[in-house]
Write a structure and sequence with these properties.
Helix content: over 70%
Number of strands: 0
Strand content: under 5%
Number of domains: 2
Order of helices and strands: HHHH
Radius of gyration: 33 Å
Shape: rod-shaped
Length: 110
């Protein structure tokens, strides 16, 4: 099979990102050795600073799914926080009750 410039252009984003296998890297580099003009273009492209994360617009369904998941996690977080606070309050009240019973039964005088 003959490797064409179109095939190399398809592989180029992955090649430049370093996300290709050794065999694919070799294939691209061998092709670039045969086409010096294209190799110069690739070198210039590799030196160009590309933006890191490009935002991808979400479809309405995906937005609604993300909203529902975020809402579910907020409700779960609120419930866990309420349980932790209630447990803390009950522990403090229980400790006070035990102390009142203990000191009342022993006849502690200050």
């Amino acid at each position: 099979m003959r490797v064409t410039r179109d095939v190399i252009q398809d592989l180029l984003p992955l090649y430049l990102a370093g996300e290709v296998s050794g065999d694919t890297r070799t294939l691209v580099e061998e092709y670039l050795d045969t086409d010096p003009e294209f190799a110069n273009e690739v070198r210039e492209l590799a030196e160009t600073d590309l933006p890191g994360d490009v935002p991808v617009p979400l479809a309405k369904e995906d937005q609604m799914e993300a909203y529902k998941e975020a809402r579910r996690l907020m409700v779960l977080r609120t419930a866990i926080l309420a349980i932790v606070i209630a447990t803390g309050v009950l522990c403090v009240l229980g400790t006070g009750l035990v102390a009142a019973i203990w000191y009342g039964a022993v006849g502690f005088v200050s």
